[in-house]
Write a structure and sequence with these properties.
Radius of gyration of chain A: 18 Å
Number of strands of chain B: 0
Number of strands of chain A: 10
Radius of gyration of chain B: 24 Å
Distance between the termini of chain B: 18 Å
Structural class of chain B: mainly alpha
CATH topology of one domain in chain A: Rossmann fold
Shape of chain B: flat
Helix content of chain B: over 70%
Oligomer: heterodimer
Number of domains of chain B: 1
Bound molecules: adenosine-5'-diphosphate, magnesium ion
Order of helices and strands of chain A: EEEHEEHEHHHEHEHEEHH
CATH architecture of one domain in chain A: 3-Layer(aba) Sandwich
Largest sheet of chain B: none
Strand order of the largest sheet of chain A: 6-7-8-3-9-10
């Protein structure tokens, strides 16, 4: 019997009020895979990622991590959140803390690790992502790209098995996008399992093992990048990709 | 001119900084002239001698001052203790109210009831109710001192207002901050404690300081219980001598605390505002 996928969403439903956002969505992510979620704004990419990290409850369906349903009520949500890292579009570093304190907060408070050890690990990660000299800086004193790299480091501190990235370059000035994509490439090369919502189609084509197109709360079409971008099967996917191409993003 | 250019301006220094030396001269002359005329007008009025004897009698002032200042010491103590209690009680109430999830519904409800009730009762009524009412019950184990119940009444009432101030600060912190705290595996309490509250409190420091100014005056309400604070002492002497100068003595003492406090709050608030506009917050 084949091992269960690393992450599997099965028939997930999620609404905000009357608005149905995820409508029986299913998605499987194998270990070391990089899945890119694409689709028009408002199609539910962020919702999917937030629900996967249990930041928003789903109404029905299953979210399986290594085969265990983490969406049921008995789950230790805090433990699951340490196994799944998430990085948001707008960085969301805590403005009243230095980069170092931001990065080590989870390790110190949620995991109860001592400060010395957490800071050693943090320094190593910060150095790896070019932030060695920013440890003591406050978020409003560093660039958007540096903020986002620090946010990625913060998410990596608990050594997550999966990293969720929600349009992590959308809030950045164009010249800062490259440095953050570079970080993701590096993580990809180390085999980290990732799910990323993105508008950077060129990047998706480059790093993704699977690209999934979301439409009306479901995965409408899914496949390796050259198939999905090269010969999309569905009318909707074709339309979406045409529009993206016209906007010059492919 | 942007607020960022001149941090640390207070209302007072604004008067003198605005237009240079010539304006400075005009300011001084017009101020002296204005207050000079006003004072002359009051002092030369036919009723002035009566006012002076009733409110500004030096001898009565000197006679009353020692007992009024004794009473004021009680006001200071009340102020001190309520300043310790209110922020703590208010914070607990505010945190109770911002807990998420169905399991915490009764706790949220309790917090809502608390703030609605204690913001709704006039402070003086609450002081009378607790200060006279509870000691009269003679229940074993409860304090019987009116002063203590006055302090409790002040704390209950002010904590309700202060909790609402905290809550507005908590609500002003973007939801995404809570998400990112939770995503690190922090519990709801830890998220509040380490991520949300520090930002929330920072948001509302000026509002909190204004509450302190008003608290400093409201401690005088304890006098309705017959507790011998500055106001009460002044009243006792007045009812004996039929001269109102002792009230002036009490007034001077309260002003001696509240004016510097108000000036400080003003200065702090304007500095805070300019720092924030510089930081782009
Ligand atoms: N907290 C929320 N409350 C109400 N509606 C929401 C909330 N979050 C998202 N939505 C709605 O759900 C839909 C999907 O949003 P989102 O997942 O952010 O899409 P995407 O990330 O693909 O742009 C949108 O129509 C959005 O307005
Ligand atoms: Mg989104």
């Amino acid at each position: 019997m084949a091992a269960a996928p690393k992450l599997e969403l099965i028939d997930v439903h999620k609404s905000y009020g009357d608005k149905r956002v995820l409508n029986g969505l299913s998605l499987a992510v194998e270990e070391h895979e990089i899945v890119c979620l694409i689709g028009p704004s408002g199609c539910g990419k962020s919702t999917l990622l937030r629900c996967t990290d249990l930041l928003d409850p789903i109404e029905s369906g299953e979210i399986r991590l290594d085969g265990d349903n983490i969406a049921d009520s008995g789950t230790d949500t805090n433990a699951v959140r340490r196994r799944i890292g998430i990085v948001f579009q707008s960085f969301n570093l805590f403005p009243h803390m230095s980069v170092m304190d931001n990065v080590t907060l989870g390790a110190r408070r949620a995991q109860g690790r001592n400060r010395r050890e957490a800071e050693d690990q943090a320094r190593e990660l910060l150095a790896r992502f070019g932030l060695a000299d920013k440890a003591d800086a406050y978020p409003n004193k560093i660039s958007g790209g540096q903020n986002q790299r620090a946010a990625i480091v913060r998410a990596l501190m608990s050594e997550p098995e999966i990293l969720l990235l929600d349009e992590v370059t959308s809030a950045l000035d164009p010249e800062l996008v490259g440095e953050v994509l570079g970080v993701i490439r590096e993580l990809a090369s180390r085999g980290l399992t990732m799910v990323l919502a993105t508008h950077e189609m060129g990047f998706a084509r480059d790093v993704a093992s699977t690209v999934s197109f979301l439409h009306e709360g479901q995965v409408l079409e899914s496949g390796p990048p050259n198939e999905l971008f090269g010969s999309p099967q569905h009318e909707r996917t074709q339309q979406f990709l045409r529009r993206v191409t016209e906007a010059g993003r492919l | 001119m942007s607020a960022g250019v001149a941090p640390r301006r207070s209302a007072v220094s604004e008067f003198f900084e605005q237009e240079g030396a010539r304006a400075g001269v005009i300011t001084v002359v017009s101020t002296v002239a204005f207050f000079g005329v006003a004072i002359v007008a009051v002092v030369s009025s036919p009723n002035w001698p009566r006012v002076r004897d009733q409110f500004f009698s030096w001898d009565d002032f000197v006679d009353a001052f020692p007992s009024v200042i004794d009473g004021f010491w009680l006001n200071v103590q009340l102020f001190f203790w309520s300043m310790l209690l209110i922020p703590v009680v208010a914070l607990i109430v505010a945190v109770m109210r911002s807990l998420r999830g169905p399991a915490f519904t009764p706790i949220r409800l309790l917090s809502v009831i608390y703030t609605d009730v204690f913001r709704g009762i006039p402070l003086i009524l609450l002081i009378l109710l607790l200060g006279f009412g509870v000691p009269a019950l003679q229940i074993q184990g409860l304090p019987t001192s009116s002063t203590v119940w006055g302090l409790i009444a002040l704390t209950l009432s002010y904590s309700a207002y202060t909790a609402e101030i905290y809550r507005s600060g908590i609500d002003a912190v973007p939801e995404s901050q809570r998400s990112s705290a939770r995503s690190l595996g922090l519990t709801q309490f830890q998220s509040l404690r380490f991520a949300i509250l520090p930002q929330a409190v920072r948001n509302v420091v000026p509002a909190l300081m204004n509450t302190v100014v008003s608290l400093q005056k409201d401690v005088a309400l304890i006098s309705v219980l017959g507790v011998r604070d500055a106001t009460r002492e002044a009243q006792i002497i007045t009812s004996r001598t039929f001269n109102y100068t002792p009230f002036l003595a009490a007034t001077v003492l309260f002003l001696a605390v509240s004016i510097p406090l108000t000036r400080y709050v003003d200065w702090y608030t304007s500095r805070d505002r300019s720092e924030r506009s510089q930081a782009g917050v």
